[in-house]
């Protein structure tokens, strides 16, 4: 043991992040953002627009800048309250990058090599992927643990990264003999739509990076675009099943009904009790109405906020300062734990 003791981690602190690349999708909304809002009633929450993660793949500076403001506006429009909680873009707090370096020295190459997201994003030519893309999960762990946060609401696709973050926390606590210094992270994978799939292929995740815009619903889409994308969504010739067991080998049917359930605040079983047996033609109209009713007030508010970019920037700067005030003592403690000569 080092013999020194450090203040206990907060009992419950929420952290989550989202990349400012392209437009936000219905997947981001149903899988993550929507679940972030009610957590604000119970916990202290930090929500971060992860621009450092975004540049692990090349981003046009002007597009990155615009997307950062757009994500901030979307989060506020969805109900994130930057006055009572913390909303900021990651690069405003350099403590994330510093802690990520320490974690680069804790995480093992073998752990990182097993990350499915790295394999997907790097594709066949791994030699050409950025080193940043490889150590991406270490930065994610740093985002969370710079605040010693322990609750992280995410979609299903981020679960493996959070398991890796827990391995990093464990190894750090063990190697430097500071049991419990970094808390165990609890992934919060909430709601019916934890993995929203592409509208063109029910076996692929809905993603902002899919080359086809018809594969996703963006939070910036107009009512007409939403209706058109749903009308053209891939389906099969059978009517909808009346029970979830009937989704077997019908990924598109499962996806559309799951989206409908999430948008109308029902379980999938209740949604099927309502729409089971319908043909896709009628169901798609109902789904489009539900999507438009749910999303258009958000899009409207987002556009209103985007008319005042200076106000959005000021909100992010304030969030960055509040975030830094929380992480500064943690980083000082970590330097101390590591044995650095430091001044606090
Ligand atoms: P990102 O920007 O890809 O996605 C943001 C959030 O949206 C969820 N999500 C989905 N959920 C359901 N269905 C989908 N099709 C779908 N697509 C995206 C993601 O699971 C995520 O919760 N690495 C993270 C960002 C990050 C982070 C963090 C998250 C950086 N640091 C620390 C949590 C904690 C990412 O790229 O998310």
Automatic annotation (TrEMBL):
Q: Name one GO cellular component term.
A: cytosol
Q: Which reaction does it catalyse?
A: tRNA(Trp) + L-tryptophan + ATP = L-tryptophyl-tRNA(Trp) + AMP + diphosphate + H(+)
InterPro entries named in the record: aa-tRNA-synth_I_CS, aa-tRNA-synth_Ic, Rossmann-like_a/b/a_fold, Trp-tRNA-ligase, Trp-tRNA-ligase_bac-type, Trp-tRNA_synthetase
Residue positions of motif 'HIGH' region: 20-28
Subcellular location per UniProt equals:
Cytoplasm
Q: What PROSITE patterns does its record include?
A: AA_TRNA_LIGASE_I
GO BP terms, alphabetized: tryptophanyl-tRNA aminoacylation
Kindly list any coiled-coil regions of this protein: none
| Quaternary structure and partners | Homodimer.
Q: What is this protein called?
A: Tryptophan--tRNA ligase
Q: By which gene is this protein encoded?
A: trpS
